[in-house]
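TL;DR need structure tokens for one chain.
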Amino acid sequence: MTVLTWIVLGLVAGFIASKIYTHHGQGPLMDMVLGIVGAFAGGWLFNTFGEPGVTGFNIWSVFVAIIGAVIVLALYYALTGRSTKRPVST
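>> reply
TL;DR here they are.
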């Protein structure tokens, strides 16, 4: 799989995972970065447990990348101590 495919898959996964996990995201750049890292992490995780990881630009790969991105988001929030709730503006 090409690097460009990983990036596109990571962008899609980052956007979807941010909406699943926090309902508002971290902003486009951070969503992209966390999504790309999540695509790699999800591929590695699924391969470790004997399932095919990211195999190309298909539904299974998007699913794997989203799972990885949600895990990366959870770790990001745990390590930075940020809340998943949006601050209330007055």
